[in-house]
Design goal:
It is built from 13 helices and 18 strands. A 6-stranded antiparallel sheet has the order 8-7-6-11-10-9, with helices on both faces. Strands 2-1-5-4-3 form a 5-stranded antiparallel sheet, with helices on both faces. The protein has a 5-stranded mixed sheet with strand order 13-15-16-18-17, with helices on one face. By secondary structure, the protein is of the alpha+beta class. The longest helix has 69 residues.
């Protein structure tokens, strides 16, 4: 049989309740407080009976408080005490001089013997709020980092990237005294590229660092960060009279250093160092990308200049040399009709060789042009077509590949035709040539059973003008290499299984892969 709880039982229940609790009358007077409430009062300076505050009017005190949270709690409490609301809940800060605290206030109204009462509780939620603030801070940091990285990636030069990197350290991470130095290779110095406004105001001049005279140069050369808690204890500091006391110096790879400083000692904790290192790594990657892009732009300018020179050369060869060559060939044919002479035959052979040289020179000059549209090309069909256009004599061709390659058909024909001519010129009229797949399926090869190419000559065979025979022009393999590389492929020469030469073309894009 369940009996009604005694007053002592209810009091005990409220005392073990894990929150500060009080019972209020309809007018806001505090009728009862539990042990948690009294303990909180004692912890915050109330003594004796005052710690309980029984008899005080909680509503009156709250209304009188000049605080937004207090006013909100007063409004909510009054609504419950008047019966307008049954429950009120509020989260509010209650900081002390030594710590940050947050509480959850709950007010629940009830009726007893025709009178209105309320039970009010205050639960300490500081742990949860601190965790929420930490998450919020981390999210804000990540959002700031994401935005800063996006801005950094929009930089068009290393100097602009340095300016944006400094802004992030100052405005987002709260490091007001920062600077970034970039290495000037021509002068062999670390040149200041960007500094914060606070740095400019604090330091009379921003130094340029030369070899062996500063912490920054040490970090740049060793590629190891330095965290200095007190600069006055570091004799190798650049400026003995510096107003700075703490410094964090971070390497930016081969591009420079990042300096973060403070006017008080021991200013940087482990978190500061971690965040700074993350940002320094990001800045280094952006500087590397900008360096590659600058090199690529310079390379493109060089290619354009070279192309202009080649076009001028091709025009000279095509018009200024071909016209007199045609005249000489025509006159020689007329002379051969009038008389017979071995000298005329030799002259005819020389003119034919000049014509071949001009053709090869023109083809070589045009290899700088970009590869055209790439089509799916059946290798066996293309190879057999190329074979038909070359003077093969008694040479034989075996095709063991059945692959389909993505390439510029016209220029790929030049590759096979030149490789076939090269094999016949060096291997003899009865040379046997094979076109097949490389074992790892990365490309194809053209091999012969001729004399092969000595290992010492395998790098020079692709140089313009190189030829081991008097019949060759020395441009055929150079043309092959240029076309292969224009496709993004690679070519190398090695021994064939028959001890001849084997040209391997790899990194090929196949249509049937």
């Amino acid at each position: 049989m369940v009996t009604s709880p005694s007053a002592d039982l209810l009091t005990t229940a409220l005392d073990v309740f894990p929150a500060e609790a009080a019972v209020l009358a309809a007018d806001g007077e505090i009728l009862y407080t539990n042990a948690q409430w009294r303990a909180f009062g004692l912890e915050n300076g109330l003594v004796g009976a005052d710690a309980a505050t029984i008899g005080d009017n909680y509503l009156t005190v709250t209304i009188a408080a000049d605080d937004a949270s207090a006013q909100a709690s007063a409004d909510g409490l009054e609504a419950v005490l008047l019966g307008e609301e049954e429950q009120f809940i509020l989260e509010y800060p209650c900081h002390s001089p030594t710590e940050q605290r947050w509480f959850l206030m709950t007010v629940q109204g009830f009726e007893q013997q025709g009178a209105r009462f309320a039970v009010m509780g205050h639960l300490n939620i500081t742990t949860r709020k601190l965790a929420e603030l930490e998450v919020h801070e981390q999210n804000a940091y990540l959002e700031g980092l994401h935005g800063a990285v996006q801005e950094l990636l929009q930089a068009d030069s290393q100097e602009e990237a340095a300016e944006r990197a400094i802004l992030y350290l100052d405005r987002i991470l709260g490091f007001p005294i920062v600077g970034l130095w970039l290495y000037d290779e021509s002068r062999e110095v670390l040149e200041p590229a960007a500094t914060s406004e606070r740095s400019d105001a604090l330091l009379e001049t921003i130094p340029t660092y030369e070899g062996g005279e500063s912490l920054s140069w040490e970090v740049f050369t060793t590629k190891e960060r330095r965290v200095i808690d007190d600069l006055t204890s570091v004799p190798e500091r650049h400026n003995p009279e510096t107003p700075l006391r703490s410094e964090l110096v971070l390497p930016l790879g081969e591009y420079g250093v990042l300096n973060i400083a403070a006017t008080e000692p021991n200013a940087f904790d482990e978190r500061d160092v971690t965040l700074a290192e993350i940002w320094a790594g990001t800045v280094t990657q952006v500087l590397a990308r900008l360096d590659r892009e600058a090199q690529l732009r310079e390379r493109e300018r060089e290619v354009l200049r070279e192309r202009d020179r080649l076009e001028e050369f091709a025009s000279l060869v095509s018009h200024d040399l071909r016209n007199p060559l045609s005249v000489a060939t025509g006159r020689l044919e007329l002379a051969q009709e009038d008389c017979e002479s071995d000298h005329l035959e030799i002259a005819a052979e020389a003119l034919t060789r000049m014509e071949q040289l001009i053709e090869d020179l023109l083809m070589l000059a045009r290899q700088g042009e970009a590869v055209g549209s790439r089509d799916a090309i059946h290798l066996p069909s293309l190879v057999e077509g190329c074979w038909a256009t070359v003077k093969t004599g008694d040479a034989t061709l075996t095709v063991t590949t059945d692959r389909t390659v993505l390439a510029d058909e016209s220029r790929l024909k030049q590759v096979f035709e030149n490789l076939f001519r090269n094999a016949i010129e060096h291997g003899g009229g009865d040379v046997r040539i094979t076109v097949g797949d490389i074992v790892d399926k990365s490309g194809f090869f053209v091999a012969d059973d001729g004399d092969g190419i000595p290992e010492a000559d395998r790098e020079t065979v692709f140089q313009a003008g190189y030829s081991s025979t008097t019949e060759g022009t020395g441009f055929g393999l150079k043309i092959v290499q240029d076309i292969v590389e224009a496709h993004g492929w690679e070519i190398r020469v090695t021994d064939s299984t028959e001890e001849g030469a084997r040209f391997e073309i790899t990194k090929v894009g196949f249509f049937d892969t």
